[in-house]
Amino acid sequence: MAGQYIEDVHDVARLIPEGRVTNYGAIADFLTLGSARMAGWAMNKAHGDETIPAHRVVNRKGELSGRNSFATPTLMRERLEAEGVEIVDNKVINFTDRFWSPTELLK
Predict the structure, then answer these.
(1) What is the dihedral of CA 67, 71, 74, 75, to 10 degrees?
(2) CB 28 within 8 A of CB 35
(3) Residue pair 67/76 in contact by the 8 Å Cβ criterion
(4) 38 phi and psi angles, rounded to 5 deg
(5) How confident is the model at residue 2 (pLDDT cuts 50, 70, 90)?
(6) Helical spans, DSSP H, in 2-50
(7) pTM for the whole structure
(8) What is the maximum alpha-carbon separation in the chain?
(9) What is the average pLDDT across 47-54?
(10) Which helix (H) or strand (E) holds 80?
């Protein structure tokens, strides 16, 4: 179960469009299994896999809560800024406008 859940979380993360972000809770809700905390745990397993854009997953407030899991504490911010996402004090500016929900896939 745990291995499949991790894989499912990573599959959803791969769908996040460049320049957009989602949060752990949105991924968990979309999968209808687990919690934001479980999705965060699964995303922590993504580091080192360049096919998973882990930098696009933030907490519910738009904060870069996973930044310390990257190779350097600034890498998450650097990757988001390279995609045009503005970050101030480790928080996504205009989070609501940048937010992508996996439920958009169902439309």
Answers:
(1) -90
(2) yes
(3) yes
(4) -65, -40
(5) confident
(6) 2-13, 24-31, 36-44
(7) 0.93
(8) 38
(9) 91
(10) helix 75-82
The length of the chain is 107
- Cα–Cα distance measured from residue 20 to residue 24, given in angstroms and rounded to the nearest whole number: 14
* Contact between residue 24 and residue 69 where contact means Cβ atoms under 8 Å apart: no
Exposure letters 29-54 (e unless 16+ CB within 10 A, then b): bbbeebebebbbbbbebbeeeeebbb
Helices 36-44 + 2-13 axis angle, to 10: 80
| Residues 39, 43: Cα–Cα separation, whole Å | 6
Q: What are phi and psi of 14, to 5 degrees?
A: -65, -20
CA angle 85, 93, 37 (to 5 degrees): 90
Residue 89 burial class via C-beta count within 10 angstroms: exposed 0-12, middle 13-18, buried 19 and up: exposed
Tokens standing for residue 93: 């500016």
